[in-house]
Specification:
By secondary structure, this protein is mainly alpha-helical. It has one domain. It contains three helices and two strands. It has helices at about 5-10, 15-25, 50-75; strands spanning about 30, 40. A two-stranded antiparallel ribbon has the order 1-2. The longest helix is centred in the C-terminal third of the chain and has 23 residues, at about 50-75. The protein is elongated, with a radius of gyration of 13 Å. The N and C termini lie close together (about 10 Å).
């Protein structure tokens, strides 16, 4: 999770924020979930994925999500 609903509600156009970020970040997609939170995710086929590859995706999503969280809130929490 990049940002709680309370943060997302303060954004002027949260869908546009996610869309613009998606244009600049490879592998990771950002979206607003059904609870109004901003979420970072990577959709990959897991069949045949090695542990090293899985770790790469997890770290990539975490890093991109932390970066966007910092840009939106000025802090890196949770």
């Amino acid at each position: 999770m990049v940002a709680h609903r309370s943060i997302v509600e303060r954004l002027d156009k949260p869908e546009l924020v996610a869309w613009v970020r998606n244009r600049h970040v490879e592998i990771v997609d950002f979206r607003i979930d059904s609870h109004g939170r901003l979420i970072g995710e990577a959709v990959v086929a897991t069949a045949g994925l090695t542990g090293e590859e899985w770790g790469f995706y997890v770290r990539t999503v975490a890093n991109a999500s932390d970066r966007l969280e910092y840009l939106l809130t000025g802090r890196d929490a949770e």
